[in-house]
Design goal:
Length: about 675
RNA sequence: GCUGCUGUAGCUCAGUGGUAGAGCACUUCAUUGGUAAUGAAGAGGUCAUGGGUUCAAAUCCCAUCAGCAGCUCCA
């Protein structure tokens, strides 16, 4: 006998095997019609997934009102898309088709090169399928029968999947809808009519099984909603996010430029971008002083031998600019990292335990030859400046130093209003071969990271395989406006570079013996370039007052007041503001509009009234006209806002074109 | 690096083989105004670059460079 507990507290019992739909029908025909899927003990299952024969389960029937049902529906929509494509094109081989954050995709292998021009035809075919409203039928087959079936269907990827990835599964499920049958774990909605609105978004190549040694499949991205309004809202969100793109805003606001003649991925900072960047550097420098870092300066190149010792040269040979060959035995590398230089500073003299921890900081510019396809505005570049530092400390100081690094990073991010990040603990992949160092040190380091995060109440996600080759790390990861994740701040523990095999670092302990220090690599921003990119999108280009390249603009109602305008401008400059004046023969409305579009925080509007009373009229970018006040009051108000580094406006959300959230098809 | 798409004025874009276009920005002139666009005139392009096909190429083909999306990679 099975006991089914429903969310309203009622309990139903069944003697025979039953599905969630059976329970829904038992409750009422209306509910049965609305039921799309179910949640059994917190797990999303199909409307047709049999419940256990006995025991007790918590059952929640999912309808259009439940967020979880959306994912199920989208996966069904993916099947319909696949079915439509198979109808329209010959020789379609199906690969995988999971649900992602803002929709779904399906990978295909077919002769015809799909383009966006094919979308209308595919969408029309999908509409036809939906209109016919054939149900999704769940088929459970033995491993053997399943293999026979996919062979009959001549679906090579599915054959391979059953023979390899699913070799251990005794039974496998298929879903059939009309002539379309797909190996699929499901679940699916009962009937396609609940797909209210859908849209194909893009097509791109994707390596089969995510391995660059494999062939490239064609991946079609799409999304679906229960109703048209939700789809329209989603598409509008994507458009909005695109308007916030740092590459678009960077050009519009004159922050930076990239010239092919200088080189791909090499950022040329315009004066305005430089002003913002320098404010960030100033801000971090204050923190470095507070946390007792010692600024150092090191050159942009170093001997190849240095990076052979550090291990970077052999390991990252392909992603470095080629060495500069000066002479047969004299080769230099543009520095891809700052740590080896800092290590040489450490090694320049004997160190005592009394000196530790030693914290060397540097805004160090490094160069990496990233694959051309990876380059992306400011977020992935070939030359960037890290707000880098290396801490050399005793093993017992590691937790404390690590904690301080995390604390500083958190403070820096929160000061900028960046709260929407996750902390990723990059640990080593147990099967990976890229790592150096011994297991004991790795375990110690990973344990240290875990326990400090726990102690600090940080909800970190552990990701095996995300470690650096020399040690585990804690990364601060944020999403850009399109939903792509980027690593910003990072704190990395390193037992490797100090080791005998590398640089053999030492300090003399209280026992007068030589000991090995531990290194911590850390950078709260990570790369200033990437950070600026993320920040531009975070503020949608509207920087808070303290960061804004142009903090205020004086504008006169008529050119008659230019002299008064210049006088006021000078007073703001003297008070330390970045201010300009607009004395064009334009109407005040036009000047305001221009300043507003340039996202200038404050407008100081001057006319006869202000000149006579010796006041200024202040217009706020966000709140509009604030009325007139004395110049002292205006300066005081703005100085306050600037010194507090007040963040008054940020923009959230992304286009949701990011990572897979569930792979309902990957079995 | 791989797959696909794209490249026309400073910006956003139209232009499917026959004399290179619009809006905004820019310059000049007029206008001197009160919280998101005053009016007029003007200037600005080897149509990414290099080859090819053609009587004729922005348009068709090839290569290169660059950008975009995704994949892969990321010290």
């Amino acid at each position: 006998m099975l006991e089914v507990n429903l969310p309203d507290g009622s309990v139903k019992s069944y003697e025979n095997s039953i599905t969630p739909m059976g329970v829904a029908e038992d409750i009422g025909a209306g509910l049965a019609r609305a039921t799309l899927a179910a949640e059994v003990d917190g797990q999303v299952v199909g409307f047709d997934t049999p419940l256990p024969e006995s025991g007790s389960v918590n059952l929640k029937l999912l309808t259009k009102k439940n967020e979880e049902a959306l994912g199920v529906m989208r996966h069904s929509c993916a099947h319909i898309m696949a079915r439509a494509i198979m109808r329209l094109f010959d020789g379609v081989q199906l690969a995988f088709g999971p649900t992602i954050e803002g929709g779904f995709y399906y990978d295909f292998d077919l002769e015809h090169k799909l383009t966006e021009e094919d979308f209308p035809a595919i969408e029309a075919e999908m509409k036809k399928i939906i209109k016919k409203n054939e149900g999704f039928e769940r088929l459970e087959e033995s491993h053997e029968t399943a293999l026979k079936l996919v062979k009959e269907l001549d679906q090579h990827y599915k054959i391979e999947h059953i023979e390899t990835g699913l070799a251990e599964h005794e039974t496998l499920t298929f879903y059939r809808q009309g002539e379309f049958i797909d190996l699929c774990r499901g679940p699916h909605i009962p009937k396609p009519k609940s797909i209210g609105a859908f849209k194909l978004l893009s097509v791109a190549g994707a390596y089969c099984k995510g391995d660059s040694d494999n062939n490239v499949l064609q991946r079609v991205y799409a999304t679906a909603f229960f109703n048209k309004d939700d789809l329209a809202l989603h598409l509008e969100k994507i458009e909005e996010a695109k308007r916030r793109d740092h590459r678009v805003l960077g050009k519009k606001l004159d922050l930076f430029t990239i010239s092919p003649l200088v080189g791909q991925g090499l950022i040329l900072w315009q004066p305005k971008g430089t002003l913002v960047r320098n404010q960030l550097i100033k801000f971090i420098s204050e923190q470095l002083e507070k946390y007792e870092y010692m600024p150092v300066v090191t050159p942009n190149i170093g001997k190849v031998d240095l990076y052979k010792i550090s291990g970077h040269y052999p390991y990252y040979k392909d992603s470095q600019f080629a060495p500069i060959i000066q002479d047969e035995d004299e080769e230099y590398l543009l520095k891809p990292m700052n740590c080896p230089h800092h290590i040489m500073l450490y090694k320049s003299k004997p160190r005592s335990y009394r000196d530790l921890p030693i914290r060397f900081s540097e805004f160090g510019t490094v160069y990496r030859y990233e694959q051309s396809g990876e380059l992306n505005g400011l977020t992935r570049v070939r030359g960037f400046t890290q707000d880098d530092a290396h801490i050399f400390c005793m093993e017992e100081q590691v937790p404390d130093e690590f904690r301080k690094c995390i604390e500083m990073t958190q403070f820096v991010l929160s000061s900028l209003g960046l709260t929407d990040y996750r902390v990723r603990l990059g640990f080593r992949d147990p099967d990976g071969s890229k790592y150096v160092g011994n297991k004991k040190d790795w375990d110690t380091a990973e344990d240290a990271l875990l326990s400090v995060c726990k102690e600090m109440g940080i909800d970190a996600t552990v990701e095996p395989g995300e470690a650096a080759f020399y040690g585990p790390k804690a990364d601060f990861v944020v999403k850009d406006c399109l939903g792509r994740e980027w690593q910003l701040g990072t704190v990395q523990l390193d037992y490797n570079l100090p080791s005998t095999e590398r640089f053999a670092l030492e300090y003399i302990g209280a026992d007068n013996q030589a000991h090995r220090p531990v290194m911590i690599h850390r950078a709260p921003f990570g790369s200033l370039e990437r950070f600026m990119g993320v920040l531009i999108e975070h503020y949608a280009g509207a920087f808070p007052l303290w960061l804004a390249p142009e903090q205020a603009r004086v504008m006169v109602v008529s050119q008659k007041f230019e002299a008064y305008g210049k006088e006021i401008e000078a007073k703001f400059k003297a008070a330390g503001f970045r201010i300009s004046g607009d004395y064009r023969s334009e109407k005040i409305g036009a000047k305001i509009r221009d300043a507003q579009l340039e996202l200038i925080p404050y407008m100081i509007i001057l006319g006869a009234r202000e000149m006579e009373s010796g006041t200024v009229s202040v217009r706020d970018r966000i709140d509009g006209d604030l009325g007139s006040m004395t110049i002292e009051d205006a300066i005081r108000k703005m100085t306050d806002e600037k010194e507090q580094r007040l963040v008054r406006q940020v923009f959230h959300g992304s286009a949701g074109l990011g990572n897979a959230v569930q792979s309902s098809d990957d079995y």
